[in-house]
Structures are given as structure tokens and as C-alpha cells.
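Before the break, one more example. Copy the sequence into your notebook; we will annotate it together after we see the structure.
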Amino acid sequence: MMKTARWIPLFAILLAFVGCKKESENIFTMFEDVKVTFHNNSEYAIVEDAVVNDGDSVHIYFTITSAKEDMMSVVVDSTNGTGTWSQRSIPISEGDRRSYSGVVKFKMQRDGKMTFRFYAMNENNVYIGDGYTSITVDARPSYNLFADRRLYAPVEGEDYPSFLSLSTGKTYSYSEAAAVSDQIDFGIDTIFDSRPGNTTFLVYNLYALTVDEYPVPYYDVSGWTKRETKFSAPVSSSNSRQFFTQTLVSSSRIETEAMKQTIDKEQTNGVEYNSGGMVATQIIYFQTPEGKYGAIYVNQATRDQQNRYYVSVDFKIQK
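Here is what the structure looks like once it is written out:
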């Protein structure tokens, strides 16, 4: 009898839990009153997840309805692969509060995915549903990204990687580059800072093989193929890393930004370690002989565990 009495409170708790469970709303059904549908109303319209190219026009025609409650606003929510997002709230006029139709139009100018949700808010500004649906636009890759390419300061008698091919993303030593000179877009050279008190600081400069006066006297490139790659002057800004990662996000955006610069240089001409040459956080735009645009971001100038000096760059180039 005592054993039975001990179990009575437990059964009471279980019964109360079951009762609550029956009464609570299911998150997967509690917003079923709101529906979202997509319409094929133009040649650029998509009605389901789609894959597009950089520069393509995209139209998303949508209708959102609410069966039981007035919609006071509709929110268009978009997110992309970098984690950035945006929201646009659309006030709904009295005649459209149970059914509202609209369209989102844009030109795809970023690689990767963008996902759109359309959801309704009631008179208390409370979410009432998105139809449990969304639509994703995926742009095919339009540029290549090469990260942390290390270009070593040339040293006489050594054979460090100090040449770069923008098309392959590979770095080459002098002996390696000689065999593939038709792929080499630039090399680097270093000088010491010209200012008194800073003469121990290295200044990094890049140069195309077409320069009139070759800057590294102990390298003989007279028999090399010389690609006519051109560069801009280094561009400085307080948010250059963010700009490189979040603005230069497609071939068309890279070209648009590159064309704002004068791209006619065969080398940088820095004489101070913190200006004019390959300085950390600066961007250098370029155009290859094939007409492809790109951007180089300078990460840092430092040295490795073997005490070898190098400059690290990321770069993006149109496919």
C-alpha cells in the first residue's frame, strides 16, 4: 500500500504533462493560416530555387495571404552566404490585409546563395507566418579567390618563391618561374625604407616583367616571355578588408570597382614601408593581357620561422 502511495505523485505529474502537451501549439502548424505563393509573371521570374549567372536579372513575384488575421505589414527578408542580411518592411493598405502581392527585382551581382523569405506581421507587430517557405537564388562562381599567397623577398644566392601567376594562383621561385614565364604576372622586390630612423624596415614592391629597368640585378629574365599585366596604384581605406570580402563578391563587381581606378602601371614605387608599395590592408587592382580584372589584398609583411621575409596577399580574379 505504501509503495502504491509513493507512485501516485509521479502519475499525477505525468498526467499533467500529457495534458499540457495536448494543449500546446505545434510550431510546425501554428502559422498555417499564412500562405506564400510565387508567380511566373516575366521572363526573369523564378518560382522555386534557381541557379543563375553573375549579371542575370531576377524577378520574384509573390502573393502572401492570411486566412484569419489582418496583415499590417509584410517583411522581405534576405540573407546571403557571407552571413549578411537585410529586411524591408512593406506597410499594407486596408484593402490588401488578407492578400498582398508584390515583386522583388534585382540583378545578381554576388556569387553564391541568397535566400528570400516573405512573412506577415499583425497589428501588434507580431509575426504571424511565412507559409513555411522561402526561395533561394544561387549564382554560379564567376571569379577565383586565392588566399595567403606568400611572396618572399628575393635574396642573392637563394631561390625563394618571389613570383606569382594570377591565372594559376601559384607562387614560383626564380628557377621555377623560368620554365613557366608565360604564366608569370609579377615578381616582388624589396628595398630599405629611405627615411632616417626607418632604414631597417623593408619596403615591398611588385613589378611586371615588362618594366624598362629590371629591379633585381641578379635575376636574368632576358629570355622570358613577358606578360603585359597592368596594375593600379595601391588603394587605402579604413575598411579595405571588409570591402574586399563583402563588396568584391562577383566578376561584375570586381570589374566595376577596378574600372574606377587607373590601371596602367608596371610596378609600384614605394620608398617608405607604410606607403606607396605593398602595404598591409591596401588593395591593388589589375588587368591581365587577356582582359581579366582582379584585386590584390595585402594581408601583411612579416617573416617566417626560418627568418625569411615575405608579404602575404589574397587576390580575386575573374574567371
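The mean pLDDT is 92. The chain has two domains: 34-139, 143-318. Try to locate both features in your own notes.
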